[in-house]
Amino acid sequence: MTETESVKNGATYFFTVATVTIAVFIAAVGMVFMNTDCDLLLWAADYIGSSPNVLAGQVVWITGASGGIGEALAYALGAAGCRLVLSARREHELLRVKQNCLDKVGMKSSDILVVPLDLLRMEMHPEAVSTVLTHFNQIDILVNNAGRSQRALWMKTSLEVDREVLELNTLGPVSLTKAVLPHMVKRQSGHIVVVSSIAGHLGTPGLGSYAASKHALHGFYDTLRLEVFDDNITVSLLCPGPVFSDALKHAFTHDKGQELGAEMNPTENRMQVDRCAYLMAVAIANKLNEAWMSNQPELSYVYFNQYMPTFAKWAAVHIGGKRLKKIKEGKTDLH
Ligand SMILES: NC(=O)c1ccc[n+]([C@@H]2O[C@H](COP(=O)([O-])OP(=O)(O)OC[C@H]3O[C@@H](n4cnc5c(N)ncnc54)[C@H](OP(=O)(O)O)[C@@H]3O)[C@@H](O)[C@H]2O)c1
């Protein structure tokens, strides 16, 4: 073999090995991705990062803790050894969640404080903060989880509903965060968590005001993260896809003051609420700036939207357009 031939063979061998290695790597990442229910950073944090147990002893205030994701998060963080503040409007449901934390999670009564709170009564937020500080003397983590979904077409939705959704889902958390932040800045320590949604990244037919309220959270909190970084305060935006909860029962409709009153069908492609809460606890423990937890195909679509926005928006018009046509023809409902 001549020297030129041996150099050629060496190069061919190198390129073949490199191509196969890259192909195997892409296939492995693809297989992990298609079988996972969260973004790849959160997936890695679950395997090689901190477990929720690193949060033991921290005081975590969860809004919307009377049901659904907030309730499940209370159990997940309670099991990790956190002390809890449970807030929402329905005090009897908060007391039920507290009792479950005592009976099923094995927490101590003095480690759980129930603070009834209406997120819309913003003038009460500073007083609620004082109540928590009087009991625990500190707030390590605020989880802004309370919120309501929506099902109504954009053109049929009254401006009052748009305003109500934005007041509750966006300004409510912003108001409570503003009330908590001075304490965290004084301590030079804290973690603000916001439960957004994949609808905070995507437009979806029938969820116009809701999607807007979640998109707005990203504007508020992505900016806050930069402003409080020097104060050692972390800001995390958590974005679930469809999850089993009471969200459809309490969702806004097109008319002010109405609730949708629909039940979720157990056969729907939704994440179980405990799984969602566990993934959220991992994201909080690892102080991730943002995390997505969702079944496929929604998870892939959020990735497409993030990294190939032009293509994703083109596809959304065509796929979303078909769904919209069916909704208008009454062939499917808005759920
Ligand atoms: N389920 C999903 O598919 C899904 C997907 C993505 C994001 N999310 C988000 O996850 C969060 C929790 O929703 P969920 O699915 O668990 O719904 P859920 O079961 O209906 O729970 C909503 C919680 O928010 C509280 N809440 C509603 N209005 C309130 C107010 N004015 N003041 C204080 N608390 C209020 C409710 O408590 P009270 O009624 O007792 O006040 C309840 O605890 C929401 O931010 C939602 O947008 C849900």
UniProtKB/TrEMBL annotation:
Residue ranges annotated for the Ketoreductase domain, each copy included: 58-243
Asked if the keyword Transcription belongs to this entry, the reply reads: no
Which UniProt keywords are given for this protein, alphabetically ordered?
A: Membrane, Oxidoreductase, Transmembrane, Transmembrane helix
Q: Which residues cross the membrane?
A: 12-34, 59-86
Sorted alphabetically, which Pfam families does this protein's record hold?
adh_short
Enumerate the PROSITE patterns for this protein: ADH_SHORT
Q: Does the keyword Lipid metabolism apply?
A: no
GO BP annotations, alphabetical order: lipid metabolic process
GO MF term list = oxidoreductase activity
Family, per entry: Belongs to the short-chain dehydrogenases/reductases (SDR) family.
Identify this protein by name: Ketoreductase domain-containing protein
